[in-house]
Amino acid sequence: MESVKSIPPSADESTLEPKYSDTATRILDAAERLFVEFGLEATSLRQITQQAAVNLAAVNYHFRSKDALFDAVFARRFAPWARDCLHELDALEARSSAGHGTIDVESVVMCYVRPAFALSKDPSRGGALFVRLFSRVLVENHRQLRERLSHDWGHLVARYTAALGRALPRLSSEEVAWRLHLGFSVMFHAFAGNDILKLFGRSAVSARDPDLIVKHVVPFVVAGMSATADGKPSAA
Amino acid sequence: MESVKSIPPSADESTLEPKYSDTATRILDAAERLFVEFGLEATSLRQITQQAAVNLAAVNYHFRSKDALFDAVFARRFAPWARDCLHELDALEARSSAGHGTIDVESVVMCYVRPAFALSKDPSRGGALFVRLFSRVLVENHRQLRERLSHDWGHLVARYTAALGRALPRLSSEEVAWRLHLGFSVMFHAFAGNDILKLFGRSAVSARDPDLIVKHVVPFVVAGMSATADGKPSAA
DNA sequence: GTCTATACCGTGATAGAC
DNA sequence: GTCTATCACGGTATAGAC
User: Does the beta-carbon distance from A161 to B202 stay under 8 Å?
Assistant: First the structure.
């Protein structure tokens, strides 16, 4: 099994991120803390501006609206993480070309798990709380953010699709798409700490521990993605 | 593979559900339609009471608050569905006792898939929209609803846990708990139509089609739950 | 018990002075 | 760029009619 500890360094962010004024940065920092703790609707602009020690109207000046502020908070954390995913895929394809040209399912899975694990462990980039914020975006259906992700990072999904397709050459492209859809669904919600069973007060897992998540989610997803169509797991 | 079409009839609801006055029922119906279409925060009580043709204050009289109204809307649809799940588990254990006393993983999975599939196909009980509403509850962490689910339906999770434990006798109880956690995560979000890849505009699956969901999610989850700890799928 | 009218305070947004 | 004042709308509480 591949190690989870080899994390490629992320690109230098200072040269790529948009520059914010001091007040805008203070707003972003305060908003991130509060959004992550209380959620989008539950945090008011008055709370944010008070914590940031700026005027209420400054939010609507620097960002256009509360929704746009949320998008800015999100994009600031998402971009460097997505670049980590791209680097993983680059490295995987480089290894594949240098070797026999083959890709196995677990390697593709690790191209997502490694950056997600690293992010969960790094509070300076939002940590696990950012992943939870991400999952809120998924079920609420943020129009602006959807367009941004689609425009800026749509090719990232295409890269994962291509890699998984090479790892599962016997499956049709529709089946590969479903495996990717289902696999990412588990991994994403696992790292987000979304625990349905806990809603019933009966969860027996530590769903927020990144090490345990990796330990259990990787074999589950690899087996699920590698399954044959009749429901029986394929031979290794 | 088991058929998805054999759906046991649900219990007679009229004798078990709490009785609402006419105005309360009208509020519930209008609230359900609007919550499902626009979400919880985006629908105002003034919208609801206008559609229901009742006074604004009637909401606070019959239900205590907007949140409590949401809980009532939710509980009305959830209870009959959860009973279907219980009937599935009862039938599974009856079959097991009549046979060799063994349970296979797919049978446990189908005890969730069949009711979820039936619900997705039945608009009169909320349909797929209710499942999406359920997924909102998961990430938003509704306190009241959490307590209700824990109190009223905690034993349902215990039943699934016991069944899966019998299907996977070689795994530790911690491993069984993780398999259940991850498996339910995929199934739940699959039926809820939550599609992360679609956020990036690159989803190649029809994530809202119940027939396709069943077709692809069952082999995936069965293989994932049956995986060995080292990531290789086990032989059938 | 059931329903209604109305007032209260906090919210996001905006116009215009500085 | 920044701030004050103001707006319409949100959920909620209550007094009182029937």
Answer: yes
